[in-house]
Structures are given as structure tokens and as C-alpha cells.
Amino acid sequence: xxxxxxxxxxxKLVGTEYDRIYAWDAINPAMVRQWCEVMGIDNPLYxxxxxxxxxxxxxxxxxxxxxxxxxxxxxxxxxxxxxxxxNPYGVLRLLEAQGYPAVVAVNSDLDFKRYLxxxxxxCYTTKLDSISEEKTTGLGVGYFVTFIMxxxxxxPNGEEELVGTLLFRVFKFKPAVRAKSNLEENAESxxxxxxxxxxxxxxxxxxxxxxxxxxxxxxxIQHCTACDxxxxxxxxxxxxxxxxxLDHKVVSGKGEIFSFVVMHYPEVPPFEHPNPxxxxxxxxxxxxxxxxxxxxxxEVVIGQKVEVEFTTYDGDLTLPMFKLVxx
Length: 327
Fold this sequence. Notes:
Residues 250-310 form the ChsH2 C-terminal OB-fold domain. Residues 14-150 form the FAS1-like dehydratase domain. By secondary structure, the protein is an alpha+beta fold. It has helices at residues 7-11, 29-39, 44-47, 49-53, 90-97, 182-187, 208-215; strands spanning 17-22, 61-62, 102-112, 116-117, 121-131, 135-136, 140-154, 160-175, 220-224, 230-231, 246-250, 254-263, 275-282, 287-291, 305-313, 317-324.
């Protein structure tokens, strides 16, 4: 298949190698231990110094699957000092400008050369390896874009040693449009713009009370009648005492922002972007995730007092959103 004229310039970027991104910290036991706790890994080679000293490695080592995490940017997307400011993913923006707005990751293949020991400092480079021909898939029409990250251990004498590689591939595409039925086609007198609706939640017997409450503009939280504790999200049994004796209570809807994220990318309709999402700690002690409304993303601060505001979308979907409490 022949390329579009605009694709010629984009393809010239294939083979470009982007300079180093450095790790903020050396390989260290604290981060290894936390990783193992989160992932449920109990291999003593990673956490038991006494055991590891008796092995061929003569000390604890890092799990190979941590390779990518060592060089990630910080909380505010800031890379370690000395890192390149080049953006290897600029090619994705160029494809967006040509009408391919959506993205989905399809491959993430790690190759490990050896175990990493405590005290090593890593960096990595990125290469735009390939861009496929235009492909048609169930998701839509688009391009598979492949990056290869090369991870290096930096030695005090300035030498660098290859320790692993990561092949990362995404599909940048135009979302497929659902074929219309004959009835829909006959009902239309003129073409209309595509209207995207918010995805509806999965409703089951365990959480139906919550969504029924939203329709009534009540924030209902699951309650255990055996131990008198609240829990969220809803579950078949009490997470505190394992009782099946559950009902719900209507809570105040007031609380504070315990944590938050601001979604910038990918931009998925019909959501607005940037899209602030808060982890709200209610005054009653439980936490729930909800959208934040009525404030700019840069204004969000942990600890801000908020209250629920029920918002109806598409005429039939009522969601609990949270806004700042006005004095």
C-alpha cells in the first residue's frame, strides 16, 4: 500500500536514536523491597541479604522485571539531571495531527542480560525502530509504531554496559465507526456528527444500591451490620469481618482530596482533557475515586475540602463528581 504524501516526512524519523535518560537513584534495597511487597514476590534472593550472600551473586539483586522502573521520570514527569530533553514520542503527535487520535499499547517485551546489583546506576536510550504500513484492525485503521529502549549500567570510569532492552509497540489509529443498521440509515435525513457517550458502569447485585443511590442523588456506602463498618467499593462480603450481613448507609458526601491524578493522554472522547481524577477520603472514613469538577487541573491540591455533586450525562447516567467546598 502506498503511503500518503505527509507520511514521507514522518518515516524519515525511523531510525532516530534519542539520547540518554538517567535514573534518579541507584539500584537500592528499599525500592526492591517495596516492589516485591506490591507484586507479591517472596524470592529471598531479592530481600534476604544473609541468604543472598551464600549465592553466586554474593548479595541481593533486583528483580529483572524492575528494569523499566529504575529510569522512570518523577511524580511531576521530571527526569533526572543530565537527561535528554528530546521527546522520542513526538512521532505519535505527528500521527495525531493527521487524524489518528487513539492509541493502545500492543507489545512490551523485556530482554534481560543479567541481574542488577545494589549500587548500580542506570540510563537508557530510545530508538524509533519502525512504523508499519497502514493497517486495518477491529479497533480501526492506523499504524503500529515500535520503539526500542536500550538500558545501560554506567560505571564510575565512564564505561557503559548493556543490561537489557525493551521493545515497546503501540497502535496509533482512527477508531472504527460502527456500521449503521438499515433502520438507523432510514431514520436519518442528514448526516450528523459522531456523538460519544460516557461508558456505563458494570452493575451487579453487589453494587446496584450504589448506582440506584446516584439516581436519587444519594451517596450510598456499603455497611456491615455485623461489625458496623463501612467499605467501598462494594463487595459480596465484609472486608473487615467476612460477614455476609451487608446493607448501606447514606453518607454526607463531604470529605477531602487524599490523592489525585490528571489525565492528559490519550485524549478519549467524550472526556475533557486535562481530566482531574481524585481519590476522595470521605468524612466517614472510606475512600472512593471520582471526577473533580469546577476547578482547573493546576488548582488541585491534596487536602482540599470537597463535597459530592451529582451530574447526569447522556440523559440516563448519573455520576458522583466532587467540587470544592465553598466557604
